[in-house]
Amino acid sequence: MERKASRRENECEEKTGNSESSELDKEYKTSLITLNVGGYLYITQKQTLTKYPDSFLEGIINGRIMCPFDADGHYFIDRDGLLFRHILNFLRNGELLLPEGFRENQLLAQEAEFFQLKVLSEAVKSRWEKEQIASRETTFLEITDSHDRSQGLRIFCNAPEFIAKIKSRIVLVSKSRLDGFPEEFSVSSNIIQFKYFIKSENGTRLEDNTFVCTLETLKFEAIMTALKCGFRLLTSLDCSRGSIVHSDALHFIK
User: Fold this and answer.
1) Residue 147 in contact with residue 196, Cβ under 8 Å?
2) How far apart are CA 59 and CA 50, in angstroms?
3) What's the Cα-to-Cα distance from 133 to each of 60, 120, 246, 253, rounded to whole Å?
4) What single string gives the DSSP state of each residue in 185-233?
5) What are phi and psi of 52, to 5 degrees?
6) Which of 67, 39, 58, 38 is nearest to 117 (CA)?
7) What is the enclosing helix (H) or strand (E) of 3?
8) Sign of the C-alpha dihedral, residues 121, 123, 128, 130?
9) Please, which of 152, 185, 198, 251 could form a disulfide with 194 given CB 3.0 to 4.6 Å?
10) Verdict on whether the full-model pTM lies above 0.90
11) What would the pLDDT profile of 106-152 be if each residue is shown by its tens digit?
């Protein structure tokens, strides 16, 4: 009799445990929401979509706003499915994080307004305004010879981040060519100044072991870096020397 009673108690405990586990599974599944945004499916948690009270998505989830369903029973929202990725990432992270080179600020601002996310809308507009100001300011990088200021190269572009990238690339290439002689050039905010330049060969050392950097090599690095970043050479600002290779300035634009 004791064995039977013990067996029944175990069975009851298992049923109770299974019931609790089933309830937890059911609760977890109901916390997952699938959205069909312009044909793109997104699966996220209920707490993510309801993070901002009075937003469009919070209203849908809590029943304040009526939303149609697609053929599979998912919420259907007739908006830009690709841009919704950034809306959802904002809800998850609580801040605006966009990929490098993102150029759809105006469209994203419109999406943020539709979804009634004021904080996101303001963040996008602020980013857009900063880019507009930066695009009107031509940024430059000057590469010079400290012994002969007539020798050198000026690089112009309306994208500050590109100037920073090309500056880093030229410094990296120069250091590798200097082979342990970093004192042969100095770097400031917009100027890279070398001790000496030559106009031919691939780099050499003078008799006193001073490194001499090839200007054409650095010009080639600048052009290749620009092309890889999606920029194009608008024009040579000084075409008096007959070709881009011999010009003293390059102007890049997206």
Assistant:
1) yes
2) 8
3) 38, 20, 32, 15
4) EEE-SSEEEES-EESSSS-EE-TT--EEEEHHHHHHHHHHHHHHTT-EE
5) -110, 110
6) 58
7) helix 2-31
8) positive
9) 185
10) no
11) 999 999 999 999 999 999 999 888 877 766 665 888 888 777 766 78
